[in-house]
Amino acid sequence: MHPLLARALEVMPGGVSSPVRAFRAVGGEPPIVARAEGAEIVDVDGKSYIDLVCSWGPLILGHAHPAVVEAVQRAAADGLSFGATCEREVLLAEAVLKRFPWADKVRFVSTGTEAVMSAVRLARGATGRDRIVKFEACYHGHVDSLLVKGGSGLATLGIPDSAGVPSALASLTDILPLDDEAAASELFAARGHEIAAVIIEPLPANSGLLVQRHAFLQHLRQLTREHGSVLIFDEVISGLRVAPGGMSELTSITPDLVTLGKIVGGGMPVGAYLASDELMRHVAPLGPVYQAGTLSGNPVSMAAGLATLALLEKPEVYRRLEEKGAALQRGMQSALDRCGVAARVAREGSILWLSLQAGPAPRAWHQVDKSGAALYAKIHREALRRGLWMAPSAFEVAFVSLAHETEHLARALNAFEGAVQAATQER
Ligand SMILES: *Cc1c(COP(=O)(O)O)cnc(C)c1O
Fold first, then answer.
1. How confident is the model over 57-73, as pLDDT tens digits?
2. How confident is the model at residue 426 (pLDDT cuts 50, 70, 90)?
C-alpha cells in the first residue's frame, strides 16, 4: 500500500473526505493525486492518467485552465473572504440568471447539497406543506430528507437510506419510479394537496445515465402546477453542461426552482438556487425562510465560476462538447463490440455512461441490470493500470471536458479497449 494512503486511512474515515473515493465498489487502491492539468491527472508517484471523472462534473474546461487559475489568484490577492457582498458575486449572479431567463433571483451557497437543502426548505416554506417527492435513482446530495429509499410498492413512503436520518423525517418523502406517469398521477390523486415539492434530476446522472422522455417531465410539470406544488429541477450536473440553461433550456420545460453546483464554481465550492421573485421573496431577509452562509458568495469561488462561465460563452463550445462526447461514445461502443461485450454507451452531450447490459438503454432504476458491476470493477482496475481514470463505480457517469483533445480521446480509447479485453479474458 502507498504510504500516503496508509496515513490517510489512519486519520480520515476510509482515508477519504467523500465515500466513493475509497474505491469500495471496484476494489483496489485509490491513487493519491498530486496535480492535474487539462485532461490529465497525475498521482504522487508521477503516473499520469487521462481523466474521465473531471472532479465529478465541475471541470467542463478541464483541470487548472490558465484563465481560471489566473482569476482565482487575482481574487485571492484581493482578499479570501469578506462576509459582505462583493462585485464578483453580483457579476456571477448576472451571468447565471442570463442563462436561466425564467428566473429572477439567485442565492449562492457553497455546495450542491446545500443548494438542494435550501430549495426544499423554500418549497416547504412557500407552500406551507411538508411532503416532498423524489425519484428512485436520483441523487440530490446528502440532504436528510432525500437520503431516503422506497419501501415495497409503487409509490411508497420513504424509509431512511442512511443511519442518522430520523424515520419521522424520511416518512415525509415519497419515492416514485422514474419514467412512470401513472405512478406520479396516482400519488398526486391521493395526496397532491400535501406535497410541497417534486424534486428530480431532469437528466438523472447519478445511478447510470437514465435519460427521461420529454412527455414524462412534462407530466410532472402539469401535475405540480395543478396541485400547487413546487417543481425543482436539480441541475447540479446538467446545468451549464448540456446547454447553458441546462435541461430547462433543452426541454423548454420551466421548473419553479433550479439548483446548481459543480460547474457554477468552476472547481471551487459553489452551489446556487434560483427561482422567480414570487418564490424568492420568501427567502430571508425578504421573507421568513431562513438560509445563510459565512462563506456564501466567497470572492475566490465566485472568480472561478465567473472565469468558467466567461469561457463557456465562446462560440461553438457546446457543439465541441457534443462532438467530443460523440467521438468517445463511438470509440467505446466499437471497443465493446469488438470484445464481444453486450453493452451500450449511453450519452447526453458530454456525459457518458457504460451500461453493461443488452437491449435499449434503461430509463428507470428497476431496468438497470446491477450484475454488470462485477465486470465494471475489472475494467476499472485494468483501465487505471493503463493510465485511464474512470469513475470507481459502475453506476457513475463519465465526463468529457473541452480540454479533451483528439489525442487524449485516442489514448483513452486505446487504454479502454485494452482494459475491456483484459477484463473479459480474465473470466
Ligand atoms: C453532486 C450532486 C449534488 C450534491 O452536490 P455536492 O456539491 O456534492 O454537495 C446534488 N445533486 C446532484 C444532481 C448532484 O449530481
1. 999 999 999 999 999 99
2. low
Measured in Å, residue 59 CA sits from the centre of ligand 1 at: 14
Provide the CATH number for the domain around residue 241: 3.40.640.10
pLDDT, tens digit (0-9, with 9 covering 90-100), for 298-339: 999 999 999 999 999 998 999 999 999 999 999 999 999 999
pLDDT of residue 152: 59
Q: What pLDDT band is residue 155 in, cutting at 50, 70 and 90?
A: low
Element (H, E) at 117: helix 112-127
If you average pLDDT over every residue of the chain, what do you get?
A: 96
| C-alpha cell, 171 | 416518512
- Which pTM was predicted? 0.97
Cell of residue 84, nine digits: 459582505
Q: Which tens digits make up the pLDDT trace of 203-241? A: 999 999 999 999 999 999 999 999 999 999 999 999 999
Q: Is the pLDDT of residue 129 over 70?
A: yes
Residue 74 and residue 60 share a domain: no
Question: What phi-psi label fits residue 407: left (phi over 0), alpha (psi between -120 and 50 degrees) or beta?
Answer: alpha
Pocket mutation for ligand 1, best pick of 109, 110, 210, 236 (most atoms within 8 Å of C-beta): 236
Say whether both 396 and 326 belong to one domain: yes
- Determine whether the shortest distance from the Cβ of 139 to ligand 1 is under 6 A: yes
The verdict on whether omega for the bond into residue 66 sits within 30 degrees of 0, i.e. cis, is no
User: Which DSSP letter does residue 239 get?
Assistant: B
Ligand 1: which of 18, 114, 116, 295 to mutate, judged by most atoms within 8 Å of the beta carbon? 116
- Closest alpha carbon to 387 in 412, 423, 417: 412
Report how many domains make up the chain.
2
Count the helix, strand and coil residues of the chain and give each as a percent rounded to the nearest 5: 40, 20, 40
Q: In terms of Cα–Cα distance, which of 265, 311, 286 is closest to 108?
A: 265
Residue 196 near residue 123 (C-beta atoms within 8 A): yes
Query: 214-227 vs 181-191: helix axis angle to the nearest 10?
Result: 10
Give the model's confidence band at 174: pLDDT under 50 very low, under 70 low, under 90 confident, else very high: very high
Residue 219's domain comprises 66-312
CA distance 94 to 88: 10
Q: With contact defined as beta carbons under 8 Å apart, do 91 and 301 qualify?
A: no
CATH number for the domain that contains residue 336: 3.90.1150.10
| Phi, psi dihedral angles at 198 (to 5 degrees) | -110, 125
Q: Give the distance (Å) from ligand 1 centre to CA of residue 235.
A: 9
